[in-house]
Amino acid sequence: MKGISKGLLAGLLLSSISVFSAAAVNDPLVGKWKTIDDRTGYSRADVEIRKKSDGTYEGIIVETRNIPGSEKQIICSHCPGALKDKPFLGLPFIWGFQASASNPNEFVNGKVLDPIGGKIYKGKAKLNATGKRLTLRGYIGVSVIGRSVTWVKY
Prior knowledge:
By secondary structure, the chain is of the alpha+beta class. The chain has a single domain, classed as Beta Barrel (Lipocalin). The chain contains 1 helix and 8 strands. The protein starts with a helix and ends with a strand. InterPro entries: DUF2147. This is Signal peptidase.
């Protein structure tokens, strides 16, 4: 009987892990994204988006690149508060995004850090139909006053 109980417990643990893993794999926002600078067309960084235990999403910078002809930036010298002078690698770049109740491909109520200028903006994002492109919009006040960039999932 003890062997059956241990086997049942192990089976439950493994199945719960696989269900959690499948949920993360099936979440189209979770994963690594290549950012594309809207002004130059170059990829400036790679961001890994994760879903936190509270159901919100955050993106952490995992790789940076310089634009040809410019120096690679390593530290967020213009970032506000506790983020000031932190290395770009590991820096929270977006946070607080929540899935929209009306559209599963839209994410709202987020914050977006402009690591070059050091400002934090309100943010929203929308996945395309294939889930391979993410349009991220940072704005002040209303979303009409803002800037959009497209990220590519890999």
